């Protein structure tokens, strides 16, 4: 019954209509205005997808699974998120690396 209702309405192979980016962004804007820490942020569909991908990768979800979830045809597209995550890890390590230099010196001195 539902499939028949939407049959022929879409130009692609989707069963249900896919809202435009503008519709999604407007909805996200209304939702983010209800959340105190997001009121001053510009929350967009692209930002939401990026956050979703980054969070899932940081929780150990395999790249192949995430690629399917995001609807990427090519896994190289999904690997962009992994590269960003790796860059962030590198920057975070640089922030604390000075603390390890002292430990390294004292460890070597004990040998």
List keywords for this structure.
elongated, Phage integrase family protein, DNA recombination, 111 residues, mainly alpha, DNA binding, single chain, Integrase_catalytic, 2 domains, 0% strand
Task: Describe the 3D structure.
By secondary structure, the protein is mainly α. Helix content is 68%, strand content 0%. It has 2 domains: 1-43, no CATH class; 44-111, no CATH class. It starts with a helix and ends with a helix. The model has no long low-confidence stretch (mean pLDDT 82). InterPro entries: DNA_brk_join_enz, Integrase-like_cat_sf, Integrase_catalytic, Tyrosine_recombinase_XerCD.
Helix and strand topology:
Blueprint: H1 2-6, H2 21-32, H3 45-58, H4 63-70, H5 75-110
Helix pairs in contact: 3-5, 4-5
Number of helical regions? 5
- In total, the number of strands is 0
Q: How helix-rich are the residues, as a percent range? A: 55-70%
User: What amount of the residues lies in strands?
Assistant: under 5%
What's the domain count? 2
Q: What does the main sheet amount to?
A: none
Protein name: Phage integrase family protein
Keywords: DNA recombination
GO molecular function: DNA binding
Domain Tyr recombinase: 1-94
Short description:
This protein is mainly alpha-helical and 111 residues long. It is built from 5 helices and no strands.
């Amino acid at each position: 019954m539902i499939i028949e209702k939407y049959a022929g309405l879409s130009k692609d192979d989707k069963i249900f209509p896919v809202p435009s980016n503008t519709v999604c962004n407007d909805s996200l804007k209304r939702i983010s205005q209800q959340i105190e820490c997001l009121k001053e942020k510009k929350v967009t569909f692209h930002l939401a997808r990026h956050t979703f991908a980054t969070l899932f990768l940081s929780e150990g979800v395999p790249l192949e699974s995430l690629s399917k979830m995001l609807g990427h045809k090519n896994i190289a597209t999904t690997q962009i998120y992994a590269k960003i995550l790796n860059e962030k890890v590198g920057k975070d390590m640089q922030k604390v690396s000075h603390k390890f230099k002292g430990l390294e010196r004292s460890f070597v001195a004990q040998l």
